[in-house]
Amino acid sequence: MGKEKKAKETSFLKDLLQMIKDLPYKGLLTGVLVTTIFLSLIQIVIADYLRVLMDSLVGENDFSMGMLGVMVLIFAVDLVLIYFRTLASEKYSEKNLKYLRKESTDKLMDTSVEEVEKAHSGDFISKLTNDLNKIQTFTKERVHNFIFVPLTAVLSLAYLLYLNWILTLISVAMIPVILVVSNIIGKPIGKKTTEYSEAMGKINTMNTEYIKGIEVVKAFHLNDRLMKKYTPEVENSVQKDTAVAKSKAFINSLSGIVSILPFFITFGFGAYFISIGDLTLGGLIAFTNLLNYLSFPLSQIPMLIGNGKGDLAAYKRVKSVINLSEERTGGKVLAFDENFRWEKQSDQEVIAIRNLSFTYPGATEPSLKNINISIKKNQQIALVGESGSGKTTLSKLLLGFYPVVSGKIEIGGKDLSDWNLKALRQNIAFVPQEVYLFPGDVEENIRYGKPEVGEGGIISAAEKAYAHGFIKNLDRGYHTVVGELGDRVSGGQKQRISLARAFLKDSNIVLLDEATSALDNESESLIQKALDSELKEKTSIIIAHRLSTIKDADEIIVLKDGEIVGTGSHLELIKSNGYYRSLYQKQMENGKREAM
Ligand SMILES: Nc1ncnc2c1ncn2[C@@H]1O[C@H](COP(=O)(O)OP(=O)(O)OP(=O)(O)O)[C@@H](O)[C@H]1O
In terms of one coarse class, where is the protein primarily found (predicted)? Predict the structure, then answer.
């Protein structure tokens, strides 16, 4: 128990050193630290020279104007050192911020979907903004103080001891007690800062969701209800922030005591020494002045520890992003157009799913149970089923977003775990349920499908997706910036841009997850035609809610609660599968009702 406590106490300094060791740009850090050491030394030189000047003024030494010149020179050196230390600190901070930003964003790109889905985007945003800002402050304004403060204190102490050791010992006797107390008070700051950062993460998450769902919020008059959820979270974050502020305020006032206490003691005992003739008034003034050089840095220590703990907590949160595990990078790089067996054998299985079961990490119920599917070259398979039946989960597994643990998936005759993930995804054109348009213009958003393609290729892909018409009518056509579109572009139009991107990719496997769900009936039937001709030469899996859109698929697989409960063509299923028939009838009735 005792050992554990001691380990915790020493862990702050250890962790802090580790953080400094982890951060790159050691050359700049060395620059910061070397100038800091000289700055610390020059404080003692300044203090001592002031003492010499003072002694001259009270008549103990001879005074000359040259002495003032020396003083000016010392101050000039001090200023030059401050200039270079500030410059090095700014550069060190700026470069580290850039480095941490890049490392964390790169890691977000390289980590698995599984890792990203575990946390909420709001918390990631909080880590990449608030917490990174704290590290910026640490590298810019604080790191040098971890050398400057203790070193100046030690040098001042040595100098004071040399000047009058008895008075020094008396003056500083209380300081160790205050330091221990301040360390105890400073201890919870790290924990409180982490709690505050977590609370901010939650608020960011809520803000993101509310902005995304603003239309629903307005349409359902959810403001009051959502505020009921939001307000306690804001109050919680304010409470956490107040807790941090209280600890800091306490530490600040303690810092005040640390800086004043030695003066009271010195004046008291100094007066006594003067009364018995052991000290002159000039000596006491010089001593008190020098004591400043000890008490000021010491007074900074509690604050330094408190802030350092907060910075360390922020660093740990940023580190948790940098430490996310990377997706596996090895595996075979296969391409479907290079001597694959199915190039010669048209009936060959492109995708084989055997005895596949899957449970999300941390979930208790499996989302897929004993799935067996065989998809031949250029076959069009439709996955249907009610919400939550496991359709999207299957597409996530096909894309290698989650590892297959039970059963197996083979693509091109190779086990998915043998595939290189980038190569695998290169061979699959995927249109997700939620459409994403990235920062940039419309053309760029389509071009992501095949970066090397020319303008003609982009227009032709847009035409196939029935997007060309509305794009060319935008203010700046294909060069309209997505941000400028804001919410002025409809869900269906976004979906058509997303489809154009997938058409442009021209992969052998096409995976559409509700890719036409936001389209009106007319656009959908047009796109359906485009899809039919596009998908003729492709192996495709189409996930659809609207059964009318997949009636012509070669095979329809019906999922219910993660299990396959029917397989066959639309007509076969209507005849023989009660569950499919009821799904179809329900949709027909709904369709009729909507049409009325
Ligand atoms: N990341 C996740 N972690 C845990 N459980 C999940 C996760 N994603 C989905 N699930 C669960 O897995 C089951 C299948 O979900 P899935 O998204 O595959 O259904 P779906 O058929 O695609 O539904 P929908 O048509 O509504 O998109 C559901 O019970 C869902 O709650």
Answer: membrane
